[in-house]
Amino acid sequence: MATVLVIDDDPYIRELVGTLLQNEGFPVQEARNGREALQKLNETKIDLCVLDLMMPEMDGFEFCRHARRYYEDLPILMLTAKGEISQKAKGFELGTDDYLTKPFEGAELLMRVKALLRRYKIAAMQAVEIGALTLDKNSYTVSCDGEQSDIPMKEFELLFKLGSSPGKTFTRDQLIEDVWGYDFEGNERTLDVHVNRLRERFPADRYRFKIATVRGLGYRLEVQK
């Protein structure tokens, strides 16, 4: 199970977050500030950080600056005060992945932690097989029957995302955020166009998979046996 580091100078928050995570089976480490947190990262394998921003000695912003130099693949969920848009923006600039506004619901915290871990697990994968097709993230190529080809980057990322979890339904918002980014200014039509291009490029009868539309939700990839 993934180990989570809770970084907050407030012992009540550390206990609350730690209890929620432990009840879901996550091992938990604690740190009172960014300096202690960096030491924990050196001593223990940490899979995700829940990070408060306002702390003494070393705040969350400074922790992010240091952490991102050496731990590029570490998911960071920041805790922010209500309405502090500037804090959120600065946090994203420094490398945090998601935020949760205080006070928060325990269910939402767990949802965001699990979503971040899934996202990073997919990102760490370098190759997936989908029916007759293999996607290689090292070279961003697709291959079938020994023949390699290139496809547009966003089509590759979308297919890789769907193919990494066959049978799972992804909402349009999830796909847009993960492929185009949380600050994407386009609309859902962009996603639909890319899905249609993938369907045309990889017909189900040849490649043994299809991208199914889940009405009112989004899409899922189905592998045909």
Write the layout of secondary structure elements.
Blueprint: E1 4-7, H1 11-23, E2 28-31, H2 34-43, E3 48-52, H3 60-70, E4 76-80, H4 85-94, E5 98-101, H5 106-124, E6 127-130, E7 133-136, E8 141-144, E9 147-149, H6 153-164, E10 170-171, H7 172-180, H8 188-201, H9 204-207, E11 209-214, E12 218-223
Task: For the structure shown, list the relevant keywords.
single chain; 225 residues; alpha/beta; five-stranded parallel beta sheet; four-stranded antiparallel beta sheet; 12 strands
Quick gist of this model?
This protein is of the alpha/beta class.
Walk me through the structure.
Helix 6 (153-164) crosses helix 8. It is built from nine helices and twelve strands. A five-stranded parallel β-sheet has the order 2-1-3-4-5, sandwiched between helices. It has a four-stranded antiparallel β-sheet with strand order 6-7-8-9, with helices on one face. The chain is elongated and about 60 Å long. Helix 4 (85-94) links the parallel strand 4 and strand 5. Helices cover 45% and strands 23% of the residues. It has 225 residues and is α/β, with parallel strands linked by helices.
